[in-house]
Amino acid sequence: MAIDIVTSASFVPASEILSQTVEAILETVVAANDVLFKKDSFKELATYLERIVPVLKELNRKYISNSESLNSAIQILNREIKAAKQLTLECSTKSKVYLLMNSRGIVKRLEDTAREISRALSLLPLTSLELSSGIVVEIGNLCDSMQQAEFKAAIGEEEILEKIETGIQERNADRSYANNLLVLIAEAVGIPTERSALKKEFEDFKSEIENVRLRKDKAEAIQMDQIIALLGRADAASSPKEKEMKYFTKRKSLGSQPLEPLQSFYCPITRDVMVDPVETSSGQTFERSAIEKWFTEGNNLCPLTMTPLDTSILRPNKTLRQSIEEWKDRNTMITIASMKPNLTSGNEEEVLHCLGQLKDLCERDLHREWVILENYIPDLIQLLGGKNRDIRNRVLVMLHILTKDNDDAKDRVAKVDNAIESVVRSLGRRIDERRLAVALLLELSKYNLLRDSIGKVQGCILLLVTMANGDDIQAARDAEEILENLSFSDQNIIQMARANYFKHLLQRLSTESRDCIFREHFDQIKYLKNPGPEDVKLVMATTLAEMELTDHNKVVLLEGGALDPLLDWISQGDIQMKSVAVKALRNLSSVPKNGLQMIKGGAARALVDLLRISTPSPSLREQVAATIKHLAVSTMSQESKETPVSLLESDEDIFMLFSLINLTGPEVQQNILQIFQALCQSPFAANIKTKLTQCSAIQVLVQLCERDIENVRPNAVKLFCCLVNDGDEATILEHVHQRCLETLLRIIQSSNDEEEVASAVGIISNLPENAQITQWLVDAGAIPIIFQLLCNGRQNDSHRSQLVENAVGAICRFTAPTNLEWQKRAAEAGVIPILVHLLYLGTTMTKNHAATSLSRFSLSSRELSRPIPKHKGFWCFSAPPETSCQVHGGICSVESSFCLVEAEAVRPLVMVLEESDPGVCEASLDALLTLIEGERLQSGIKVLAEANAITPMIKFLSSPSLRLQEKALHALERIFRLPEFKQKYGPSAQMPLVDLTQRGNSSMKSLSARILAHLNVLHDQSSYF
Length: 1025
Fold this sequence. Notes:
By secondary structure, this protein is mostly helical. The protein has 56 helices and three strands. It has a three-stranded antiparallel beta sheet with strand order 2-1-3. The longest helix is centred in the N-terminal third of the chain and has 26 residues. Its EC number is 2.3.2.27.
């Protein structure tokens, strides 16, 4: 330890002083690390001191004899090093607030010390000492640096000191001013701004002042007393109990009656009590505004003494002004204490008057403090339960005035039963009351205890969210800020999410956001036990997974950034985190728009990889499969103008996913089957079907169809139906055998799932038209089974349209004209009338299938039409002759010859020609044209003409469908052979035919020209076409 200042080199050797100085420097450098204030300045000083140590050591080594100049320089250096050490130790132990108040003095002492040390170094007799050139240069540099060193108070410190000086000089600083000042001080010296920390620091500061008094530094003591008086007005400077005791002690000493003002308080000009009294050059005092007006009017004599005045001299009469304010404060204190009974009188007019008076009295912060100490707050809150809207509105205003920036007032609110509930009720009332209530709640939400209570009031958060989305801009801003303040609580955030306000839930899903929130609110919520970020995210993700959300809200959540943190969990979290994240994604992915966005964001890859790995949790695998199913369904809704999004990136993914059907339980199997059902209806359906065929999917599906596993078999049947439609014929024939067909028929008869039945019938409908398969179906009784479906599905029911469509398609395979036996069985079952009926009611595809079936039936009609028997015996004794068919010439019936005329199918088929779909028009046209095949052309054409079928055929000449054009041309070429029909319909066909001769293909040009020749438009020998 260095000794005290050395006063004489004659008593202590210079070498010893040098050693002590080095030791003091080292101690000062160490102490500089512990200073509580101006750390950077002390660090700079310590850097200079460290550079001196090598110089002193060199001096000590080189020093030989005593020199008066050298000893003098060493003494100064030792003294200043000691002063630097002393200052450093003071700044390591004293109150931070005290140090701030003395920041200017500290800065000056630092500068003085640096300059004195520089001077001491410059006094060293370098020429007489044999020092190295490096040391000499270093001493010179040190002298220059320390001489020029500037230690300044920070801008924030200067602003605080200026605010303190202003508050002391003007004597009008109130509680709010002191509160703000104390917070600035706390932030400047690095202490928490919560009340307990501020009070402790303030008490330490006051203790430091006692030490100043003990040192008998009167000037500093007076200055510090003024600062304490200023800061003492802050809430944290004293406890609520101390304030209350001080207030009531003063109030009891005043009596109960207001005092009349002294005569000196009145302005001689206005005869009113003065507000801003000023003294003129004559020594008289007037109200500033009154005397200034007197001067403005051209008067320069004193209104009282009529002596000349210097109009430039108006001195504030601070003493009188203070006396007037003290008199006003005394009367105000008595008034506030006496008004309380009026507030609880029950007389509405009296209550309103009292509330108005209170508001007027609360213009000054001090008076607001007195209203609080008189305990008005419980009575005000009780008035919120009344029916008078004006009273409630004024109470809300008063409570807002009292609680603004006042923790004591908020604490009193917290102690009143159902206080927050009373305020929240006003949120649901008229707009003016609602606006006042939300402004009050915003102020209350800044206080820990009340913030916790606000979120627990039933319906409060829902009302706030509603207001935050409302049209009242200020109320919406206040409501949103309250929600921000309430977001410290996870339960509050969950309530917000249930009210469709997801901002804070999305923030909590991110660790970074969570940390920011904790830093922002640390001072306010550190009394709570904060869960770790991962626990918080788990709560938020669980909420997201379990919440019932509208489609709109699901979209909002995904657009708000929910996807990335959930995918992070899937890739990096433990089993519990993965499970919750997948459930949340499943919830959000049920909206197709979200599903596509998730695929683009990498969700499909993460989920497929998760499904690929072996996991100890079957439920997790089920959730993953269900989520992938949602993503697959979303690919069905893609618009053609957009670049299609693919769920499965590679063939390996397709094979792997389908292979899991044999490795997983029914729940996962069901979802995998549904995934591929959806993909078979996506833009990538062709590729998916091809890859499934390559991995023997049809064989697997046939096996699953034969097993009666709930929810698995129906989905296997549905996927089977997708693959059979336009599937590879060889592969289908390889795996579809008689047992499979019997299984499908059994499903059709026994299943209660209409979609499964429709798919089973769809499989039969789409199977290749193989004779063996059709015969197996006939032998298994398929015709009556499918016919029964048509009978049950005749009504125009949208839920059964697909079933009927597939059933008509299945019937079609039994109408092949190459097998009369199948046709007869179908006709005998009553199929033909049903087909005719469906031409009126069915879907486009149903009509197509029905028309195709009728066409195929009709191709056999001429052969099956029974000749009319020859008449035998006498006419008068014989039965009436049977009527011959107008088209086929023989005896026809629906069941025996499948005649379209007898089935009354012609007009429905003509009606179908008006459909917009070219395919169904073509099928209907094919059926109608069977009536003009063969020898009975004229009779068939007549039937078509009577049914108005020829006009649609002419329209088909302009159809965009080439097939329809060609078929119509061939039909008209035959029809126009007959003069009767050529004359009637030829003119309307002429222009379309001419157009075809110019725009059609070569065959159509030639045929069109031939018809035009029939119509005498072209020469029949023309070879131009």
